[in-house]
Amino acid sequence: MNKVAFIFPGQGSQYVGMCKEFYDEHQSVRDIFAEADDALNFPLTKMIFEGPEADLKLTTNTQPAILTASVACAQILKEHGIKCDMSAGHSLGEYSALVNNGAMSFRDAVQVVRQRGRFMQEAVPVGEGIMAAVLGLDTHKIVEVCDEVSNEMKACVQAVNYNCPGQVVIAGATAAVEEASVRIKEAGAKRCIRLSVSAPFHSYMLQPASDRLAEVLADVKINDIEIPVYANVTAKEVYSGEKIKQLLITQAAAPVLWEIGVRNMIEAGADTFVEVGPSKVLSGFTKKIDRSKTQLSVEDNYTLEKTLAWFAENK
């Protein structure tokens, strides 16, 4: 089958200086960054390249920053004739995938994700919701513990990121997540690590963000596409612009079914995964899902050269 899948990173993959080499050497990348600054009426480029890191880590800044860097990396691949047969993006990264595949304009997407970041942050007051990564425990057991705690405490705690074998992220009300973390460790988890985020993303506590996002997306044109994106909410391929819009609205307050989505892409013939954008978080997940598949990435000149060399030899 020999198909190529592009995977686009989500929040947490950002770093000060990402995409700087491409920016310095490619006018097309400078154009993308300039469009982001203009669309947001905000010097996003300066923040990406100069920081401070604390400002870049704010959700409302992180989301458009990663989107911009990822779309720029995809542009470089396009200029070298590297295209995908399917794609997916983790949470925020789904917007990058949709821009790459022609469902949304970059200008619309960067404006939407800046608002998305604000809506997600404002949905739950700081301190009232947290997230934790669970390592080394069966997924079914994690879900079982979360359900028990949620029922007992009458508070939200749920599995929200099904990333790969041995890693599931839980989120919800602070006290409920803390209690679930204790029980999860008692049940045999290797580790349960509280994440440095300011809200319980993708839990049902984010429903207010989903509702506000629906109002914004109502005015955004989303096209039908020919190259499928595997949606976070369903882990299945989607082509319809109308369906894409509904899934994006749902996605803000629904779990990310990443592992299942990757397995479905593999079943559809994907044997080469290219992580397009900053860091290599998703490559690590994919390796744990299926080590037999080729893992490539593009975020700077070094990774680009390695990826282009691989395609020259193998495709």
Largest sheet: 4 strands, parallel
**Low-confidence stretches at least 5 residues in length (pLDDT < 50)?**
none
Q: Total helix count? A: 14
Shape: globular
The gist of it:
With 315 residues, this protein is α/β, with parallel strands linked by helices. Helix content is 51%, strand content 17%. The chain is built from 14 helices and ten strands.
Describe the structure.
This protein is an alpha/beta fold and 315 residues long. It is built from 14 helices and ten strands. Strands 2-1-9-10 form a four-stranded parallel sheet. Strands 4-5-3-6 form a four-stranded antiparallel sheet. Strand 9, helix 13 and strand 10 form a beta-alpha-beta unit. Helix 5 runs parallel beside helix 6 (93-100). The radius of gyration is 19 Å and the shape is globular. It starts with a strand and ends with a helix. The relative contact order is 0.17.
